[in-house]
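Try this one yourself first.
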């Protein structure tokens, strides 16, 4: 069973190489307006999306992100911020003081931002564009805040490159559905059997790509990734921003 929406979703792959073709303003506005229709916790809409066009600023962001060239070369680069500032203004307008620093507010704002982010990419893909999330903006989130004038009670969750694809990478196989879909309770999976099978699938995928061929499996990749401390500065950074204090 399928339809154009499902087909677009099943065809997703991150795009990091773009044609030298601009995205028309009305196309980007259509994408963002559609993305804004994502569900939002209690209708808070706790996000702000900053479009960065200045080439020098893009170069600096690319450097912060470990020299990801596509941040400079993509026709559009967006920074998605979790943002409580409008909500604070709403409180002020009605003589209330916004409670601050609760982990719950951090979760609400971050989840809202993730939802509009994925909706943005999906809407773009439905119009023949492609793109990639850039979590690496959190390599130095303080510097990103300074560069983009992001105030307290807001923080950059991820960036996103968008453009017309100049690449046709294969689709990265996901875990088998039974690994993530359970009935009624958590019920432990047969993890070893599952990983054996998925490692086989992912090894084949990594061996058959046109570029960046490697002999790699998902479990090995995850073992490397999950046994390293990544961005340990985030806790103190979020604290300073007014998030995640209690
Ligand atoms: C929050 C988030 C942050 C990401 N950050 C980066 C990034 O900084 N650079 C990059 O090239 N890809 C980044 N990605 C893309 C993932 O690597 C990619 O989605 C994943 O490997 C699955 O591949 P696919 O999107 O092609 O299916 C990010 C994805 C997400 C959801």
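Now uncover the answer:
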């Amino acid at each position: 069973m399928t339809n154009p929406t499902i087909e677009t979703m099943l065809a997703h792959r991150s795009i990091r190489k773009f044609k030298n073709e601009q995205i028309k303003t009305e196309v980007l506005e259509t994408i963002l307006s559609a993305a804004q229709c994502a569900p939002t916790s209690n209708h808070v809409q706790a996000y702000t999306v900053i479009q960065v066009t200045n080439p020098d600023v893009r170069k600096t962001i690319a450097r912060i992100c470990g020299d990801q060239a596509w941040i400079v070369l993509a026709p559009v680069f967006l920074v998605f911020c979790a943002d409580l500032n409008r909500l604070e203004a709403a409180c002020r307008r009605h003589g209330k003081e916004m409670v601050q620093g609760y982990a719950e507010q951090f979760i609400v704002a971050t989840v809202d931002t993730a939802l509009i982010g994925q909706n943005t990419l999906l809407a773009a893909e439905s119009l023949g564009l492609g793109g990639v999330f850039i979590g690496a903006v959190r390599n130095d989130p303080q510097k990103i805040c300074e560069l983009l004038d992001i105030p307290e009670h807001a923080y950059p969750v991820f960036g996103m490159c968008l453009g017309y694809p100049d690449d046709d990478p294969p689709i990265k196989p996901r875990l088998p559905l039974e690994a993530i879909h359970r009935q009624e309770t958590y019920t432990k999976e047969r993890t070893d059997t599952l990983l054996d099978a998925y490692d086989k699938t992912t090894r084949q995928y990594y061996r058959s790509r046109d570029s960046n061929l490697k002999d790699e499996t998902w479990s090995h990749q995850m073992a490397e990734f999950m046994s390293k401390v990544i961005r340990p500065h985030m806790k103190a950074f979020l604290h300073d921003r007014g998030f995640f204090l209690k």
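Discussion: Residues 12-14, 16, 65, 68, 132-136, 158, 172 surround flavin mononucleotide (CB under 6 Å). Residues 102 and 246 are 5 Å apart (CA to CA).
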